[in-house]
Automatic annotation (TrEMBL):
Organism classification: Bacteria, Pseudomonadati, Pseudomonadota, Betaproteobacteria, Burkholderiales
Full protein name: Diguanylate cyclase
Domain EAL: 24-278
Organism expressing this protein natively: Hydrogenophaga crassostreae
Length: 285
């Protein structure tokens, strides 16, 4: 904060900053306990193709807090990142996803589903990250193609050589790589084309106003065109209406994720939904 005010500005430690620091410290302590007590759960949100078929799911972590109930990631992922607890939490989500892929491998309806796992920059930067992914794959015996890692644009601010090398090692393991929340960061065209990516995900902020804000429409169109020219799949997140879905489909978007189809669901609810096709509203364009 002081930095944002400029070099020669003194910044006093305001009481509300102290309150935030104290609250975050409390969350950190509770997180550690939550991990020990296995209070975390993974919900799964379907991703559908142009035909409206579910091709995979995104794993989204929730904290089943004994007093607060189900806590959403925005309330604890930033603290987990600041405290380093994102490492054990992230590994737990990854292992859970791998175990789910194994459980799904037995049945024809689910054997080809992919699971996307969010990876924080903090996790990706860890020197053992590739090894940890490799041992999760080996230990569970999944087909690596089923595992999709969602990386964030902030990695592109790091040393490119290292990022590209690590991504290459992950690709060598056979996993799929997606760039999440694309468009909100600052990736340049030139660095994007050097990355061994499979997918771009259009951030839901652009999707939200794609029909009403000409800027967001232009951005979505540009992202899709960019992805196509780099031979990447495009997934739109936060698709809430049929009109948004149709607009994006007409621009060339391949896959969709959002409340129009389903929110992130507990495993049992997701498996019920997989047994019947998603709303026929999805089959147009
Ligand atoms: P994300 O990876 O961009 O995930 C998409 C978020 O959009 C999810 O929020 C999802 O529930 C929400 N969403 C999906 N469809 C719609 C829609 O139609 N409308 C709206 N308004 N929202 C929609 P969620 O589950 O609260 O997760 C928020 C963020 O927390 C994720 O954003 C991701 O960055 C992070 N996160 C979640 N799970 C993990 C995890 O296991 N590890 C890490 N490192 N980060 C995670
Ligand atoms: Mg994601
Ligand atoms: Mg996203
Ligand atoms: Mg997002």
């Amino acid at each position: 904060q002081a930095k944002a005010l400029g070099r020669n500005t003194l910044c006093y430690f305001a009481p509300d900053m102290l309150a935030t620091v104290t609250a975050n410290a409390a969350v950190g302590i509770a997180l550690r306990e939550g991990l020990r007590e296995k209070q975390f759960v993974v919900h799964y949100q379907p991703q559908v193709n142009l035909q409206g078929l579910v091709t995979g799911v995104e794993a989204l972590v929730r904290w089943n807090h004994p007093e607060k109930g189900l806590v959403m990631p925005a309330a604890f992922i930033p603290v987990a990142e600041d405290t380093g607890l994102i490492l054990p939490l992230g590994m737990w989500v990854l292992e859970t996803a791998c175990e789910q892929l194994v459980a799904w491998a037995d049945s024809a309806e689910t054997a080809n589903l992919s699971i996307a796992v969010n990876v924080s920059a903090y996790q990706f930067r860890h020197p053992n990250f590739v090894d940890m992914v490799m041992s999760a794959i080996k230990r569970t015996g999944i087909r690596p193609q089923g595992l999709k890692l969602e990386l964030t644009e902030s990695l592109l601010a790091d040393r490119m050589e290292i990022t590209i090398q690590k991504m290459g090692m992950l690709k060598d393991l056979g996993v799929t790589l997606a760039l999440d929340d694309f468009g909100v960061g600052y990736s340049s065209l030139s660095c994007l084309k050097r990355l061994p990516l499979d997918q771009l995900k259009i951030d839901k902020d652009f999707v939200a106003d794609v029909l009403t804000d000409p800027n967001d429409a232009a951005i979505s169109r540009a992202i899709i065109a960019l992805a196509q020219s780099l031979n990447l799949q495009v997934v739109a997140e936060g698709v809430e209406t049929q009109e948004q879905r149709d607009f994006l489909a007409n621009q060339g978007c391949d896959q969709f994720q959002g409340y129009l189809f389903a929110p992130a669901l507990p495993l049992e609810a997701l498996e019920l939904l997989l047994r019947k096709p998603l709303a026929d509203t999805t089959v147009t364009g």
